[in-house]
Amino acid sequence: MSAPILHWLAVLAQSIAIVVIVTGLLQNFVYLVQLGLAAAALIQTPPTPSGGLLWRRYADASPPIALLAPAYNEALTITESVRSLLSLQYPSFEVIVINDGSNDGTLQVLIDGFGLRPIERHYDLPIDHRPIRGIYGGTHQPRLIVVDKENGGKADALNAGINVSRAPIFCSMDADSLLEPDALLRAVRPFVEDPERTVAVGGTVRIANGCRIEHGRVLEVRPPRNLLALLQTVEYLRAFLMARLAWSRINALTIISGAFGLFRRNRVIEAGGYTRGTVGEDMELVVKLHRLMRDRGLPYRVAFVPEPVCWTEAPEDLRVLGRQRARWHRGSLETFERHWDMMFRRKYGRVGFVGFGYVFLVDVLGPIVEMLGYFLIPLFWLTGLLSIEYLLAFAAVTFTFGVVISVGSLALEESSLRRFPRAGDLVLLTLVAILENFGYRQLNNFWRLRGVWQYLRRSQSWGTMTRKGFGAPASEGAAVP
After folding, report:
1. Contact (CB, 8 A) for 49 and 455
2. pTM, to two decimals
3. Residue 218 — left, alpha, or beta (φ > 0 → left; ψ -120 to 50 → alpha)?
4. Using 50, 70 and 90 to split pLDDT, how confident is the model at 479?
5. Is 411 left (phi over 0), alpha (psi -120 to 50) or beta?
6. Which of 139, 217, 253, 348 counts the most CB atoms within 10 A of its CB?
7. CB 163 within 8 A of CB 147
8. Rounded mean pLDDT of 28-52?
């Protein structure tokens, strides 16, 4: 090969390496900023009152809440989940279970388990959704309402729940998640302290795998015994406590988990409710609220409160986890496509510059650039087109920063919330926080790339999520599309 061609190949290799390294540095810089903002928020936040003091301080001022729990083929676990919701410690709430066209007898299980019967309940239709076939209630459980409707997906089911609900605040959650008894009382604090501006509040979601659970309550927090679930435990700590707490501090939070989030009902209706035909309905709704309030020039707040905890079951199978992560990434890209015009526009303030800039850097560019780096930089070095310095710089950006951020997130969580009381558990999680950067992170990027491909193909498939159920053996699992 001639010298000029080799020269241009070397220049191309160096350019690609520089783009990969600079993108990685920018991502890690953003993560370090998030870690700093989250630490500052936790330091400046006053200690959370105990359960009794929390009740005395906030119960009288707390607005009524409607818990919306979409359910599709949840017959195995729905009774225990609903009993858990009905026993929450909150002064005024109702539980609205939306049976989204289940074909496994979920509705009949609810009718038999709670003595329900058809009732008349007036509701308006400010948001579109599939037809409601019936509404059920019971004299022994006046707080429980069951809506039976034609299948339309989670977003459609939530829209039906919003229409049927009457409370000024609704809580969006999954029917198979578990809330801590005082989770609502803790999460509602921003609505009580800043009622004029607060439009949405998110709470922490934690991994329940490995914990001792009885009658819908987490009695003892333990780390999972499955390695995949362990890796996700550390990942959830970083995603919720670090990233979401940091962005909420500067009002640039673009996502509240669909497993647990509180919303002001009238603002959600004004924004058009949940968008159907997307797999990222939770992120889409938060961005629509940002757009609504910014377009109207109204002061508002989208907050994140780390203390309320929602427990969920994490996948313990690589195929199931891969489908879940590809779907999550596809949802992020769909939301970015719908609202990309908010990015870097002064009108949309921090959410446009910081929130959407972060989505563009981490979700749009991130997986593509990082996977190119894993493949091309070692290849260029082996062929002599790149010097060892580029390879070492890429390794430092990828692994060293990753370990620091993962361990820092774990330290931050335990210094503030102290969810793992045993020293051995903390040592195990610290080792996992280091380990996740060597293999699991790269696998996650591959799944995100698959999400990019599905997004480009306009796939709307959810795949199948196999659940064991809380405390149930694997043979009793349920497949949840």
Report:
1. no
2. 0.91
3. beta
4. very low
5. alpha
6. 253
7. no
8. 81
